[in-house]
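Now for a specimen:

…
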Amino acid sequence: EDPLLHLFLSNMSAAALPRVPESLLKKRKTAEKYAATLAAKTIEEKKAKKVNRKEYFKRAETYVREYRRTERDIVRLKRQARKSGNFYVEPEAKVAILIRIKGINAVAPKVRKVLQLFRLRQINNAVFVKLNKATINMIRIIEPYIAWGYPNLKTTRDLVYKRGYGKVNKSRIPLSDNATIEGSLGSLGVICVEDVIHEIVTVGPNFKQVTNFLWPFKLNNPTGGWKKKTNAFTEGGDYGCREEYINKLVQSMT
């Protein structure tokens, strides 16, 4: 056999099959491995979501039953009291909603500090607060700068669903996915939006952690504007305690 012909053929085969750099092969192998891991993770997440979805629905149904039972009990007790010629006095509110209505001009240092403690740093910011002797005294200090009252279930639910944002790694993240809540509050047994609402409405054991997780709500000016911010609500103005009438104001601001 001719050695020149053999050399020519071997060169031709080498040209037909170009060599792939080893670095590129490693890169491909790593990419394939990453893609396989990602695909497996996606499948696991889908399975977990399916299981969690059932749990979310179950919890929501439980809470709805609880809210309805509470409403029926109040109606029943009122009827009983009326029948026996008495009055039924509803229990005092456990939670309040505070809305800042005035700006920063000429604010006393003590008032500014209390507003900061309540996280009311901007006009039309709103927060949920647990009512006790300490918080009521703090509310009295800042009363001329806020409108406050006792939110009902509808107001709480609308605020969390429409204007709800969570604090995740110091960032303001919308509550568009229950995974956001579970990631931050899962260790406390709070895994979905309905858990957050239930914790606020009933002032549960994790009320403080849940309200700290929620970013202060940013509301619009009320439809039709304010009446007179320098006057108390009882004098036909805006600031101060509105009790149940705060719900109407919040509805016009969301």
About this structure: The mean pLDDT is 87. The two ends are 91 Å apart (CA to CA). The longest strand covers residues 95-100.
